[in-house]
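Deliverable D4.2, example record:
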Amino acid sequence: MASDIEKIRKELDRIDRRIVGALADRLKIVTSISSSKIEQNKLIRDPGREEVVLRRIRDLAGEAGLDHYFVEQLFRDIIGHAVRYQAHALVDYQNKRKGPSVSVAYQGIEGAFSYEAARHHFSARYDEVECLGYHSFHEAAEAVERQDTEFAILPIENTTAGSINDTYDVLGEKNLYITGEEVLRIEHCLMAPESVELEHIRRIISHPQAIAQCSKFLASLPRCQVESYTDTAMAARKVRNDSDLSQAAIAGMHAAERYGLRILARHIANQEENYTRFVIVAREPVQIDPQITCKTSLLMAAAHEKGALIRCLNVLDRHGINMTKLESRPRPNKPWQYLFYLDIEANIHDPAVKPALKELEEKTVFLKILGSYPSRQPA
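Output generated by the structure prediction step:
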C-alpha cells in the first residue's frame, strides 16, 4: 500500500511540474505580447478578450468534469498577474527604466515579510532581484538616498494592527517618492526549534506589529512572556540560535523554512484576512500612463483654524476625486498641529486632476505630492 501511495505522489509531482512549466511558458508569451503592445501603443487590458478567455475556460472546465467556479477564479488570478506584469512593463518603458536586475532595500533579514513582499513585487519583472536588509525603515530609505539601492520597500498599514507610523515619518522626512505598492497576505505562525507542546513555551518574541496582530492568541497563553524584537525573521533566527525549547517566535512560514524551525501553530492572527500594504520608494517619481489604474499619495498640513481640514477635503469632493485613506501624524516641531497623509484615486498627470491639486495647495499651509503609482489589490 505504501509503495502505491509513493507512486501516486510521484505522479502528482510530475503533474505539478507540468503546471508550473505551463505557467512559465504562458508568462513568456505575455512578455512578448506586452512588448508588442508597448511598441504599437495599444491598451494593456482588453476586457472583451478576457471575457472570451474566461468563457472558454468555463466550458473547458465543464468538459473536464471540474468545478467551473474554481477554475475560473484560478484563471482570473492568472490573467490579473499578466495584466499587472504588463502595467509594470509599461511604467518601466515610459520612465526609461532599463536593465534585467534591480536592487531593493528592506527592513529585516531574509525571511522577513518585507523581504517576501520585495520578491513578490519585483521577481516577475526582473531576472535578478537583489534584496538588501537594514536594521530600520529609516536606514532602508537612506540606502536609496545614498544610491546604494534603487528602491526601498516599506510597510505602511496592516488590516489588523492599522497604520505603521514609522513609515509615515520616513515619507515626511525624506525626499523620496512612492512609485508602487504591494499587498501581501500575512500568515503568522508560532515556531520553535522542536515540536513542543504550547504549555512548555515560556517566552515568545517577535516584531511589535506581529505581536499586535496576534494579541488574541497571545492572551490565551497567560504563562508566556511576550517580548518585542527587531524583526519577525530576526526573532526566528534568534530562536534557532538559542536552541531553547521554552522559547518561540512569531514569524512567517518562509522564516520557519529558512531557519529550520518547527511550526507549533498556524493562522494565529486576530483576523484570518490579514494583509499588509507596502509602498515602494525611489529617488525620482514615475509617470503613469492614463490607462493604468492609479493611486496618488499626498502629505498636507491644513491651517490651524476651525474648518480648515474640511475645506481641504471639500476640494477633492468638488472635483469628483475619491479619497481612500486619511491618516494624521503630529507635525514635527509644531505642538498640537498635524500632518495629514491622503491616498486618492487619481493620477497627477491627468489634466482633470491638476486643477484640483492646485486648489488644494492654495487651501493648505503645506502640500507634498508623494507620488502617483499603479494601485494594487490583494493577491
